[in-house]
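Ops channel
N.P.: pipeline sanity check, posting one input/output pair.
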């Protein structure tokens, strides 16, 4: 048996901006994990081929959070036309449980509340992002 999840991609112009966006999405509990990867992008923009360094964000969330996540990315992103690509995926049941818990509101919190306590973070023995 597997658990549904959503994978979404966007890019930011720098590591600093990518980290800020990732933290904002995590603090709002719109994502369970955001993986940051430096990349080189070649793309068409305003009639020219651009060549630049960016940071790709691979965002993992619940299907129920996709609409809110997309809205937050468009609101917080530094680009006028941010990359926004998403697709459905399946995860192992244990990972799916962790993802749901990570995106859910904590006790007494509404969705978008503060992040979990340090003892509850993936780096403290939880699943790898």
């Amino acid at each position: 048996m597997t658990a549904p999840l959503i994978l979404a991609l966007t890019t930011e112009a720098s590591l600093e901006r990518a980290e800020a966006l990732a933290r904002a999405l995590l603090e709002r509990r719109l994502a369970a994990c955001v993986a940051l990867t430096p990349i080189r992008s070649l793309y068409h923009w305003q009639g020219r081929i651009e060549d630049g360094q960016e940071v790709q964000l691979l965002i993992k969330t619940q299907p129920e959070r996709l609409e809110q996540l997309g809205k937050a990315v468009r609101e917080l992103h530094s680009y006028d036309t941010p990359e926004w690509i998403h697709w459905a995926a399946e995860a192992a049941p244990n990972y799916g449980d962790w993802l749901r818990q990570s995106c859910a509101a904590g006790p007494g919190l509404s969705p978008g509340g503060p992040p979990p306590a340090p003892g509850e973070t993936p780096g403290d023995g939880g699943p790898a992002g």
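N.P.: looks fine end to end. The first helix runs from residue 15 to 27.
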